[in-house]
Design a protein that fits this description.
Layout: H1 2-15, E1 34-36, E2 38-39, E3 62-63, E4 67-70, E5 81-87, E6 91-99, E7 122-128, E8 136-142, E9 147-152, E10 158-159, E11 167-173, E12 176-184, E13 197-205, E14 210-213, E15 230-233, E16 244-257, E17 266-280, E18 283-289, H2 317-320, H3 331-334, E19 349-350, E20 353-354, E21 357-367, E22 370-379, E23 388-398, E24 403-411, E25 420-433, E26 436-449, E27 454-466, E28 470-479, E29 495-506, E30 513-526, E31 532-545, E32 550-562, E33 566-567, E34 573-574, E35 577-589, E36 596-607, E37 610-621, E38 627-640, E39 643-659, E40 662-671, E41 676-688, E42 691-702, H4 708-711, E43 713-728
Parallel strand pairs: 1-15, 2-5
Antiparallel strand pairs: 3-5, 4-14, 5-6, 6-12, 7-8, 7-13, 8-9, 9-10, 11-12, 13-14, 13-15, 16-17, 16-43, 17-18, 18-21, 19-20, 21-22, 22-23, 23-24, 24-25, 25-26, 26-27, 27-28, 28-29, 29-30, 30-31, 31-32, 32-35, 33-34, 35-36, 36-37, 37-38, 38-39, 39-40, 40-41, 41-42, 42-43
């Protein structure tokens, strides 16, 4: 088919390219900052206790002289930071000395694993083993020893759902705090033929709202950018053993169905496994059997007033491992998911229902200078279709820090209703220019579906020029008829999208404002006959105080052409017609580092021939490091010619952190449209590195809004107890 031919040609072209060296120009200007990696002798490894009394640290090269990124780019930090790096055949060791000249102002309120330590004083190490200048492993820590790890993908966002097995301890001292990390090499892919890694360090001082960085100092790039990070020299002799890591799970699940009287309770014992084998230091093969997703958190509860589907991010560990390899199209799909060719959340779901994942195999990493990924999964049978085999392959080549060319291929339909193939190519480019940066992410895709759908193409691009005061962005996306990525995500098919937006930023001196921004945007959707479907022209005036409280107001002129009537939650029908209406609104948010941090927003007025008042309220409460709570509420009061509806969604999340390795987290969600209540409590205890006890308790009930007390009706209760162990060979 045409999709297959396109991908074969693209992959052949990439494979024919022989890179001169995988690290060409990737160190960027950050190469000025270098560290020599100190190799430890047998028995010389430091004790990970947060105290810098091990003799080894006196012999190790030090990283210091950090530079401010925010609020004053290029200025000296108000507080000094020093970092040491050492390694042996198994681990990379990082020691920190974080000075705080006013210890009483040290901000430390979070103790949980993967908690929101961004509200505290915290530090981070970026590790870019391939010197890609785009992707990194991040390991973060606050003064209480709360660990956070994540993956930076393509200099964009950090995937915090990724977890590694590593150790860290901290000590609060009279002059600040100290920390030690031990990061096993087995958590990462790395080159077997090179000894230089990309590395950088950052620190946040909450009381001054300062962000410091060791190597990269450009404010325009943001904290997750790696294009100019430093160099760690001399890593060699890593012992990966046989290169095999096995995660073994044993779980017991109890289910009670309340709504079927007399039905026996269900008690199931399950075993599952994830196995990782390093074919080379840089290339990992992964196998999953009877995959266990019992610890996956609840998705945010959303009751949409749009006629287009909502996108939810991936949170399952198996699909997050090396997920940057499968990323396609750059910001063209991270900022707007419509048309995304591969969306891993389609795996394990069919026709809106959860389906068991029997097993899967993945190949991911780097080979001959190429980033390559291949994924094959087997979904269990459903009532209407048999087991489905789904496959994805992705290859890309980072020619330099500035240019990346790639291709993607997918095969299969989770719903089992068709045979579907997709192929495409993308190019991602970035170039510094006159104190700013040009960026362009472009793509071309072709899908082929048997039956009446046939084949169709999608293409587009995302183009940006940014300095600190100036931001300009152009987005173009065309989804032609027949474009049908069954392993992807489309919520607005057969459309053409054009958007132009810009921002002007001011940073007043000697003011209580940190920055003030003026935004303007123009978004247009057309059908394939170039008839206008939607338009939004708007602007906002927003800013941030030096206290990190922020605010904003906006106005938008909106046009919507509704060809087919659709029903709003609660029953009112929006008739087929053309609508033009104005929306105005604003928001005010408290700084996250406060004990009580509120967020409030409101918008109104016209809406599809009627009116809508939208109110959102969020409250975060952190009285100390042991307990925290977040409460989210949204209310939409809608009146249109066909009727009225009120939509109320509420959710609460509470966390008790007994230690940095032991937490109890409870989520509660409810909305008045479905009347469905979900409660999910998770107790997690990592009682030794790589060994974990998980206890999950869930309850689902129908609770109509009219009468909570008398109409409460339980549906299903579940209890899961799971023990896991990571074994290395």
């Amino acid at each position: 088919m045409r999709a297959t031919g396109l991908v074969v040609c693209a992959m052949s072209m990439l494979s024919a390219i022989t890179p001169t060296h995988a690290t060409t120009n990737n160190a960027g200007s950050g190469a000025e900052r270098t560290l020599d990696a100190y190799r430890l002798s047998d028995g010389e490894a430091p004790v990970i206790d947060g105290q810098l009394d091990d003799q080894v640290w006196s012999r190790v090269d030090v990283a210091e002289n950090f530079i401010q990124i925010d609020p004053n780019e290029g200025a000296a930090p108000s507080q000094p930071t020093r970092v040491w790096i050492a390694y042996d055949s198994q681990n990379l060791y990082v020691a920190w000395e974080i000075t705080e000249t006013r210890p009483g102002y040290l901000t430390a309120s979070v103790r949980e694993r993967d908690g929101n330590i961004g509200t505290d004083d915290w530090v981070r190490v970026f590790l870019d083993p391939f010197r890609s200048g785009r992707d990194s492993y991040n390991f973060e820590l606050n003064a209480y020893g709360s660990r956070f790890d994540g993956l930076v993908e393509n200099n964009l966002t950090e995937r915090g759902a990724w977890n590694a097995v590593w150790q860290a301890r901290t000590q609060i001292t009279p002059t600040g705090w100290t920390a030690e990390m031990a990061i096993p090499f087995r958590n990462m892919s790395y080159p077997s033929d090179g000894s230089d890694w990309g590395i950088d360090f950052s620190r946040v001082v909450q009381r001054e709202f300062e962000v410091h960085r060791w190597a990269q100092h450009d404010q325009i790039h943001g904290l997750n950018n790696l294009s100019n990070i430093g160099l760690l020299q001399g890593i060699e002799g890593i012992d990966r053993g046989r290169g095999l890591e096995v995660e073994a799970f044993a779980a017991s699940r109890y289910t009670h169905v309340w709504e079927i009287p007399g039905q026996e309770d269900d008690l199931v014992f399950d075993a599952s496994m994830n196995a990782y084998y390093k074919i080379t230091d840089a290339l990992t093969g992964t196998l999953t059997l009877n995959t266990d997703f019992s610890d996956t958190p609840l998705d945010p509860r959303i009751v949409s007033t749009s006629r287009f589907a909502t996108f939810f991010s991936e949170t399952r560990d198996f699909f997050l491992q090396d997920s940057a390899i499968f990323e396609f199209g750059g910001r063209a799909f991270t900022e707007d998911s419509n048309g995304r060719p591969f969306f891993s959340r389609r795996i394990g779901f069919a026709n809106g229902r959860v389906v068991d994942l029997v097993g899967g195999a993945k190949l991911s990493g780097r080979w001959a200078g190429h980033d390559i990924g291949a994924l094959v999964t087997q979904m269990g049978p459903t009532e209407n279709f048999g087991a489905q085999t789904l496959a994805t392959a992705r290859v890309s080549h980072p020619f330099t820090n500035d240019l990346k060319l790639g291709a993607i291929f997918t095969m299969g339909d989770p719903d089992g209703s068709s045979e579907n193939l997709l192929g495409g190519v993308d190019l991602q480019w970035a170039r510094p220019f006159d104190g700013g940066q040009w960026t362009a992410d472009t793509f071309f895709l072709l899908s082929d579906t048997d039956g009446e759908v046939g084949s169709g193409i999608a293409f587009g691009g995302w183009f940006r020029y940014v300095t600190d005061p100036l931001f300009l962005r152009l987005r173009v996306k065309h989804l032609e008829e027949g474009y049908n990525p069954q392993l992807g995500f489309v919520n607005r098919p057969n459309s053409r999208y054009y958007a132009l937006s810009g921002r002007r930023r001011w940073r007043p001196e000697n003011s209580f404002f940190r920055n003030i921004d003026l935004w303007q945007w123009n978004d247009f959707y057309f059908d394939l006959d170039n008839n206008l479907e939607s338009r939004e022209i708007g602007g906002s005036f927003e800013g941030s105080f030096v206290s990190s409280d922020n605010w904003g107001i906006f106005v938008a002129d909106i046009y919507e052409r509704v060809d087919d009537p659709f029903t709003l939650p609660g029953g009112p029908v929006v008739a087929a017609d053309e609508y033009r209406f104005f929306r105005v609104g604003g928001w005010l948010s408290g700084a996250d580092n406060r004990v009580i941090s509120p967020h409030f927003e409101v918008n109104c007025c016209a809406f599809f021939g009627g009116e809508r008042l939208g109110i959102g309220a969020n409250l975060q409460w952190r009285p100390g490091p042991v307990f925290s709570m977040e409460w989210n509420n949204s209310l939409n009061i809608i009146t249109i010619p066909s009727g009225d509806t009120d939509i109320y969604v509420t959710g609460m999340e509470g966390t008790v952190s007994f230690t940095p390795d032991m937490q109890l987290k409870t989520e509660v969600q409810w909305d008045n449209i479905s009347g469905n209540l979900n409660v999910f409590s998770r107790f997690v205890w990592e009682f030794s590195p790589g060994s974990e006890l998980f206890i999950g308790v869930g309850h689902n009930a129908d609770v109509p809004a009219r009468d909570f007390a008398n109409e409460f009706s339980s549906n299903v209760s579940t209890v899961t107890v799971r023990v896991s162990r990571t074994l290395n060979y």
